[in-house]
Predict the 3D structure of the following.
Amino acid sequence: MAEERVGPPERRLPLFRRQAIEGAPGTIKLAELPFAAKFVLRLDPAAGEAAFRQAAGLDLPAAPLMSVVNGERAVLWLGPDEFLVVAPEAEAGELAEALAAGLADTHHQFTEVSNYYTAILVEGPKARQALMKLTTLDLHPRAFKPGMVAGSNFGHAQAYLWLEHEEEGAARLRLYVRWSMAEYLWCALAEAGREWGVPEQEPVAGEPMLTESVTSRKA
Amino acid sequence: MFVITCPYCGERDLTEFAYGGEAHIARPHWREDMSDAEWADFLFMRANPKGVLAERWMHAAGCRRFFNMLRNTATDDILAVYRIGETPPKVEARLPATPSGEAPLGSGNDAVKVIQPGEGG
């Protein structure tokens, strides 16, 4: 798997050196998702919802903090007039053209951010608990329900958290984080999962993580 | 730590927000005869009351939208949160209690006075 992830420099994800890691069976798994097409769409939903549906094949989220999924494509709410559109990598050109044509008469802005954000998958029954250590978001199942998206700080990194799916307490969450913060967030997530046996992840540049448990273990 | 209710995202921790200074300060239309003092007044002069202040805040880590807030600077009570472009709602500010329990008005102790919107400044 590592060989596949280390491609030519222009085809490297920010976490290409990292393999998927997991804790004890039935607790938590971490992985970086492969390349995908990502677009940030600025659009007033009242003005452009019908045009967007026709062009992209899915609705805009009806309520704040929600998402809409149709097959491989998804739209995530980032703000009252801002959405993250996610699609398989192969559909990037097709989707961009369809949206440019479909929204030509509507005031909008459409920016490709495929190589700006990367997605880290956090999966398992302990995924919520691990993330709770890094953020002030209310991640109790009562407050953070399947399909919800929320931007917040995770450790020192700003990221968008999406609860993609949850079944019998096992949650599948995605973190959309900026390219340059992915390495930090990966190590912070591994650190949060240490109590369930997630292997320790050394920052690639060798910089200290400055968390107490790491520094005391090395002393 | 305190919790701020973003008008779009709901209740979030203070650390997700950025402060944007006093709200409702309109940029003056440029005129030939505008004096430096007038321009400086727009740029630098702020009310800084002990009491209710209309402020701009931005939900920097979440939806990245500016919104307005009425906050009692004496007690840190958040009295109202409203969107950009809306008129500030009427609020009642709680007077801060003092250790010796002076009457809020008439005691000569200015520290316990709360300026309501539209008063003094």
In short: The longest strand of chain B covers residues 52-58. Chain B touches chain A through 14 residues (CB under 8 Å).
